[in-house]
Amino acid sequence: MKHLQAAFGRHNDAGMYVAVLVLGIVGWLVLGSIPIVALTIGKELMTGDEGSSISVGILQQIMSPNGFITLMFSSFVIGLIVLVLLVRLMHRRGFSSVVNGREKVRWSHFFTAFGLYFLLMALFHGIMLLVDRDNILFQFDARAFFSMLPLLLVLVPLQTLFEEYLFRGYLMQAVSVWSRRVWRVWIVPAIAFALAHSANPEVGAYGFFMMMSQYLLLALIFGLFTLADDGLEVSWGMHTANNLFLLLFFTEPHSAMPTPAVWCYKDASPSLLDSLEIVLFGVVLWLVFRRIYQWKRPVLGGKLNFF
């Protein structure tokens, strides 16, 4: 496992991982909030309304759709830059060492995973258009759609890369240093990933445990694929395809990132069908990737023995 093996050696003690995680998360939250803070100060200066807070709804009202999208994604881009720089400065390791422990990113794995997951999403939601037609509103605005398309094509892969780099990349490596047990390397980052999404508006709208179970299930599948493929590229491709497809084509009233998508679910209350969708996609893609990349099932009960 080159991906996890890269976590060991000089400048890679457990304390270093704690420091980078703390500094990275604080840096992401502090520096990533600068655009919104600047916007708040600018609003106060223009209106004289001091101390007023700006919610996501207000941001949508006072900004153009593309400006809103750029602002909301800016914190992830800043967080990614902060984390990559910290790994370089403190661990003396390059970008790809966290991605897969190799000298370069395996782009073919990323694009294959992206294409297959995007296709599965299209098939599933195409069926939903037929069986749940009354619950789906067609709201296509060609000007708004094609205006946001290039932005999302750039920003969504960066947003998902930040989350993959942090959770399936760096945190997996950190846990492997703290504990050589494979099941902990798999489980701990998945729980952290789910909890990191607990502030999303869908959680407040549909219930903590309902949404957390879906985030956790998705994170467990992404983590399993990361262990099997010995790197982030497949999970990054799947994650990117999931987010990009929904942002472009199917939004819902409580979306964490409202966009002028082609369709909108009037009622997107989660159900067992959503969990079945995640599991079905995972099983199908596991069978496909196992054949393409000659995967073996990770021994989740095993122990890492690099040295």
Provide a descriptive summary of the structure in words.
This protein has a 3-stranded mixed beta sheet with strand order 1-3-2. The longest helix is centred in the middle third of the chain and has 37 residues, at about 140-180. Helix content is about 70%, strand content about 5%. It has helices at about 1-5, 15-30, 35-45, 55-60, 65-90, 95-100, 105-130, 140-180, 180-195, 200-205, 210-230, 235-250, 270-295, and strands at about 135-140, 250, 265. The radius of gyration is 20 Å and the shape is globular. α5 (about 65-90) runs parallel beside α8 (about 140-180), α7 packs parallel to α12 and α7 (about 105-130) packs antiparallel against α13 (about 270-295). The two termini are about 10 Å apart. The chain has one domain (about 1-295). The protein is built from 13 helices and 3 strands; from the N terminus they run αααααααβαααααββα. The mean pLDDT is about 90. The protein has about 300 residues and is an all-alpha fold.
Describe the secondary-structure layout.
Layout: H1 2-5, H2 14-32, H3 34-47, H4 56-62, H5 65-91, H6 95-99, H7 107-131, E1 136-138, H8 142-178, H9 182-196, H10 201-206, H11 208-229, H12 233-249, E2 250-251, E3 263-265, H13 272-293
Parallel strand pairs: 2-3
Antiparallel strand pairs: 1-3
Helix pairs in contact: 2-5, 2-8, 5-8, 7-12, 7-13, 8-9, 8-12, 9-11, 11-12, 11-13
